[in-house]
């Protein structure tokens, strides 16, 4: 990770326009077809949430805007990305766990299981400060139509929220919200990411592990 001059990036105009905005966050909603994800989870014995996080990382890894993030008053470029998940720890509270993204689904699955277990047992967050982290929150016990994340003024990271998927005969759908800082990306980049996420979900069954 390193600081970059915004004027030397494609985010120069956005940095000037949105960096000091009192509310620079934008939220998009999309309903995804997660039928293949649910089937793959059952067939391969892998956690639904892990597969969802991997698809998020995979979709984001091909979009260059995800590797830059406004931090404080600076624009930082990262060499890697990670996906965060919220873990219920042994004290009945929640802890935060950053999973380094890997194109290798098997490796990501191993890291996900190891790190979430570690966080659940020690009740301490696992933070990766040298990666651009995509936050997630899965409210799988509840059906929700959407959620807008809180903007703290400290964290500018992109963030996704979803609830329990809905059943429609043989089809499964999941509504997600995606919040991002306008300095980091434009609406078109965010919409492209969500389209790529759908394609990654559809291609899961073709991946050999």
TrEMBL record:
Family annotation (Gene3D superfamilies): Chloramphenicol acetyltransferase-like domain (3.30.559.10)
One Pfam assignment: CAT
Single GO MF descriptor: chloramphenicol O-acetyltransferase activity
Domain of life assignment: Bacteria
NCBIfam families, alphabetized: CatA_like_2 (NF040637)
PANTHER family (alphabetical): SLR0299 PROTEIN
Protein name (record): Chloramphenicol acetyltransferase
Organism: Candidatus Cryptobacteroides faecipullorum
Native organism taxonomy: Bacteria, Pseudomonadati, Bacteroidota, Bacteroidia, Bacteroidales
